[in-house]
Amino acid sequence: MVRLILTEDYEALCRSGADFLAGVIAAKPDAAVVFPTGETPMGIYRELAERLRRGEIDATRLRVFQLDEYLGIPPDDHRSLFRWMESALISPLGIPMTNVVRLSVNSSDPEAACQAYDEAVRAVGGLDLSVLGLGPNGHLGFNEPPSKPDSTTRVVELTEESIYSNARYWGARDRVPRRAITAGMDVLLSARQVLLVVSGEHKRDILHRALEGPVTPDVPASYLQLVPDVTVLADRVAWGPERVR
Ligand code: PGA
């Protein structure tokens, strides 16, 4: 079932997202959660860090799983998604590195690294929560279209659309890595809860295709329609003022 939380604007979305995550942490302080990078969740992470400073939450026992990572860049490249997650979430929330499962993109055998990641998810009994953004092409993580719901953690080729949308972080389109590792659809969709966070008018069309269109590998996020416990957190401009169900 998909539950919709609509907020007036991005600031309200961030407060609402932080409320949701604070609730998860309160219910299970050592919850296993996959967290995204991307622009959308940044305000939620800032709000959580603020609540931590005020002593309202304690996230230090969370078990954090990385969602996706570029292939073929040095491990400490500041543009790596891991470094971004570290500076935006892990470090501000004081989560020890021993609680973090990283996608090891620099191992000589990326396929083995993917299997190790899926094994780490199994070892904690599956994810409690997948926090996900929505790609302009309907991707979840780097599960690019077409992606089947049973696809495992794997090496993927980025689509032109994702390369285009990430070019802002790399300065130019031709600098964006062409390959990545993504947590698999099966891992993300089988989490006990999913929180999809969507902001901005540019996401409106893909958001409605994902939630109301056909369930198809061509829109990987459409498989969320089949997941038992999904919360979609969207601001009004993402949802569209004229469309309230
Ligand atoms: P965004 O990215 O939050 O920067 O829009 C979402 C995504 O591409 O998955």
Report the span from N to C terminus. 14 Å
By CATH reckoning, the class would read: Alpha Beta
Number of helices: 8
Helix content: 25-40%
What is the element string, with H for helices and E for strands?
Answer: EHEHEEHEHEEHEHEHEH
Beta-strand proportion: 15-25%
Content-based structural category: alpha/beta
How large is the radius of gyration? Answer: 17 Å
- Provide the spatial order of strands within the biggest beta sheet: 1-10-9-6-2-3-5
* Structure ligands: 2-phosphoglycolic acid
CATH architecture descriptor name: 3-Layer(aba) Sandwich
> Structurally, how many domains make up the residues?
1
The third-level CATH topology is Rossmann fold
Give a structural overview.
The protein has a single domain, classed as Rossmann fold (3-Layer(aba) Sandwich). It is α/β, with parallel strands linked by helices. The strands form two sheets. It has a seven-stranded parallel beta sheet with strand order 1-10-9-6-2-3-5. Helix 2 links the parallel strand 2 (32-35) and strand 3. The protein has eight helices and ten strands. The longest helix is centred in the N-terminal third of the chain and has 18 residues, at 10-27. It is 34% helix and 18% strand. The protein has helices at residues 10-27, 42-53, 81-90, 110-123, 160-170, 185-189, 204-212, 236-239; strands at residues 2-7, 32-35, 63-66, 68-70, 100-101, 129-133, 154-157, 179-182, 193-198, 230-235. The mean pLDDT is 95. It is globular and about 45 Å long. 2-phosphoglycolic acid (PGA) binds at residues 38-40, 133-135, 139.
